[in-house]
Amino acid sequence: MKKGRKEIMGVRAISVGFSVLTLGVFKPFGLDAWQWQAYAHLLIIWVLGIAVCLASEGILKYIVRIPHSHDNGISYILRRNLWFQIINTPLEALMIWLYRHFVLSNRAPGNMLSWSNYFGTLVIIAFCSFALGLYWRFKYRNKYLAAELEETRQLNEQLMKSQTASGQSESTITLTGSTSEAITIRVNDLLYIETVANYTNVCYLSNGEVRTDMLRATSKQLQDELEAYHKIVRCHRAFLVNLDQVERIESHSGSMRLIIKHCHQAVPVSRSNTTAVKQAIKQPYPPPQPPAARAAAPPYIIAHISTKSRVMGTFVTLYLPISQQNHELWQGYRK
Question: What are the structural domains, with CATH classification, of the chain?
Answer without folding.
Answer: 3-156 (no CATH), 169-282 (2.40.50.1020)
